Amino acid sequence: MRKSKVYIALLHYPMYNKRMDIITTSITNLDLHDIARAARTYDVDGFLVVHPSENQHALLKEIVSYWQEGYGGQYNPDRKEAFSILKTFYKLEEALEYIKNETGQEVLTVATDARIYPNTVSYRDLKKEIMEENKVFLILFGTGWGIQREIMESCNYILEPIEAERTYNHLSVRSAVAIILDRLLGEAWY
Length: 190
Fold this sequence. Notes:
Blueprint: E1 5-11, E2 15-16, E3 22-23, H1 29-41, E4 46-50, H2 54-68, H3 71-75, H4 77-83, E5 86-89, H5 92-103, E6 108-111, E7 120-121, H6 123-132, E8 136-142, H7 149-154, E9 157-159, H8 173-185
Parallel strand pairs: 1-4, 1-8, 4-5, 6-8, 6-9, 7-9
Antiparallel strand pairs: 2-3
Helix pairs in contact: 1-4, 1-8, 6-8
């Protein structure tokens, strides 16, 4: 049993595109479904979706309400349960404030990226801290080509890439979430 609380956030701004321009990415139905299911499977304390656009929040509300209040929730109660931990925010700061209010503790942020940064933390070290210490973590996942460098560098931790030495290292965010949650919150198989 882990001692820390762990939340995850799916960020859509400020993200890089393949030319390293700052952009806002779009909400995708598959990301919401697959990440909510992985988060619920690994008993994540909350799945927070952060997007600055009112139009995208309308889409989010439509998707979530279908699975929470509509036919989808009746048809598939497991999906309804997975979506029960999803919360939406316009800014990362709002998500952090929500967690702080819910837990009464300072929130430690953990950035994820396929690139290597000088101050990375290993899965083994972060898992040990999550399992043994009473802390609150928010793991940030980016869309597009990754989270803006300034956000990354403002985090308490930057998690090492999943497979830094691979010649091809461009997983979908939903695949990365599943792998990272298993490494940090799953059974210690190593």
